[in-house]
Amino acid sequence: EAEVAQSPRYKITEKSQAVAFWCDPISGHATLYWYRQILGQGPELLVQFQDESVVDDSQLPKDRFSAERLKGVDSTLKIQPAELGDSAMYLCASSSAGFSYNEQFFGPGTRLTVL
Amino acid sequence: DAKTTQPNSMESNEEEPVHLPCNHSTISGTDYIHWYRQLPSQGPEYVIHGLTSNVNNRMASLAIAEDRKSSTLILHRATLRDAAVYYCILKEMGNKLVFGAGTILRVKS
């Protein structure tokens, strides 16, 4: 069964350093999402791509976070500089289309710890 | 964003049915009701969704009230592997999932 791949699974960094996370969605899925999940809370959408275009980044802290999906396939989420409050699980998800009935498939996530 | 209300936690015995409630009194006519669950240390997993009619799949059943202001996720025979956080989500146009805190389901053997 096709899965969403994410790497790394775990990342420890010091504050003010740069970090990057990679996501490879299920083949053929046009819509890709990045979520952040703080311990004890539900995931929060950071950015949504439709192919290579950003369709929603309203919750993305743009002063330090950036996301790209250059060829409309895999995607990278970057944080520079990392802050202590960025410690969280970063989840990637994909879906075949952007309709309200399409299910999203989530990857295993990247657990970020900022020291 | 449309809101849902779920109990913080529920407990069930293994091999018994579980009914997880969700209130969504401000639902609009085009909102789909989605349920996802998240097992420990994993990403969320799709469970089921519906619009107006009750739905069944291999994982669960979804019962939707006639006025659509509430719904219930039904696990017919809970197993230890069903212990997870269950999220009830109203899915708006544009495919944006807005997660709440969900219901922590504990299953006792």
Provide the residue-averaged pLDDT of chain B: 92
Helix content of chain A: under 10%
Q: How many DSSP H or I helices of chain B?
A: 0
Largest sheet of chain B: 5 strands, mixed
Separation of the first and last Cα atoms of chain B: 38 Å
Quick one: biggest sheet of chain A?
Answer: 7 strands, mixed
Describe it for me?
- The complex is a heterodimer of chains A (115) and B (109).
- Chain A is mainly β.
- Helices cover 0% and strands 48% of the residues of chain A.
- Chain A contains no helices and eleven strands.
- Chain A has strands at 5-7, 10-13, 19-24, 31-37, 44-50, 53-56, 65-68, 75-79, 88-95, 105-106, 110-114.
- In chain A, the strands form two sheets. In chain A, strands 2, 4, 5, 6, 9, 10 and 11 form a seven-stranded mixed beta sheet that branches. A four-stranded antiparallel beta sheet of chain A has the order 1-3-8-7, with no helix packed on it.
- In chain A, a hairpin with a 6-residue loop joins strand 4 and strand 5.
- Chain A is globular, with a radius of gyration of 13 Å.
- Chain B is mainly beta and 109 residues long.
- Helix content of chain B is 0%, strand content 46%.
- Chain B is built from no helices and nine strands.
- In chain B, a hairpin with a 4-residue loop joins strand 5 (55-56) and strand 6 (61-64).
- Chain B is globular.
- The model of chain B has no long low-confidence stretch (mean pLDDT 92).
- The interface between A and B is medium-sized, with 28 and 25 residues.
